[in-house]
What does this fold into?
Amino acid sequence: MGKRSVVPFGPQHPVLPEPIHLDLVIEDEKIIEAIPSIGFVHRGLESLVTKRTYKEMTYVVERTCGICSFMHGMAYCEAVEEVMNVEVPDRGKYLRTIWAELSRMHSHLLWLGLLADGFGFESLFYQCWRLRESVLDVLELTTGGRCIFSVNKIGGVLKDLDEDMTKAILQTVDKVEKELEAIKKTFLFDYSVESRLKGVGVLTKQQAHDLGCAGPFARGSGIKMDMRMRGYDAYKDLDFEPIVSEDGDGYARCYVRTMEIFQSIDIIRQAIAKLPAGEFGVDVKGLPKGEAFVRVEQPRGEAVYYVKANGTQYLDRMRVRTPTFANLPGLVETLKGAQFADVPLLILAIDPCISCTER
Amino acid sequence: MNEIFNPENKLEEINHEKLLRKVLVMKNKNMRLAQMCAAFVEGKYELSYSFADDETYEMSTLRLIIEPDTAIPSITEIYPYAFFYENEINELFGVNVKFINHDYNKKLYRIDAESPFVKKEDK
It folds into this structure.
């Protein structure tokens, strides 16, 4: 047995600007154990329910994270709508689905770029982020915001899409699809990329289940779980299947996220083709009383929203279980036995969002 | 169209002495611990342990209502990754969780306040 040392990783590290800390127990260059620490920037957003009304909380939860902002707002609104028995008009549900999938596209493109940057493929990083810009542009055109859209409300959405906007969305997804085909070849078939990702950080299906993993991280280990299959919003009317890979390594996670961008494009096309006419939101009267658990599929996986209301303007409790929170035990497992040089890439592979985790 | 999986969420209120037995039942059903959370309502803790079936998308929640000074056992022997959740409810709400396997001793979130989600005068 070689000499064991403890090497601190983070909370500030070039590969991950957000603060997470790991104590890595290493033997030569091999990781024996990893002990995670979070909490460097915990904001206590959940406790704001005592100071902000249940309607104002929509704006608070949208600011949980700059990447999954829309889906945080959407899940919170759906939890309150369930408590209040509010039926969102079909058009509102479709609009939520379209913006949610555009959010997934820009989140996965951001991640692909960061992954490329992580293994030193700078030009690939620039290509992914350039492509992401066009998704952000169309989000700005349709919602007014590039990352935080503030279009959710309890009872539906605040803005509608006109014909020009739906055309712009379709043109954008056409362009992204065409250019992503070229980028996909590099991510999935380039020798240098494969050499950094294949067989690295393997997590078996059983391990992923036993460690409670979620999202593309779990699907990359063969778990066919996608909260969109629950059929919330317009997903019940759309045709799609969870994208799964059995390999459980870094390459599998990259494959799942790459293919999910194409899947999002397909879902957006279906949703626009079926977009019903009519109202896109209803006014909500009264005060919420009761509790609800709602699960949605964010870009990083299953998010669980819990709302408990007491019949006043202020909720008793609002709780968010973010996907990164669920994926940290899985991350620690993938690090065991890995080479020290692969640590940044393995952390990136779960697409960690510390902003969400430190809600 | 796809087959839609949208079963109703189940909620069962249990006595804290039955917690480990009930959690073991969930484990034996191959369910995933989806979340744990605490709320402080009318002078008592409400603890929710939610378990998910990833094939049927069923979610079952065990609900414990306990007095502030009641200690509950850790479930980390059954679900090892529950340590994050248990440290969280211990640090933010002051719930007394015994024998957590990997106890951060109220340093998970590094907050310079004791149980910030529950006011001292409410306890």
Remarks:
- Residues 123 and 172 of chain A are 22 Å apart (CA to CA).
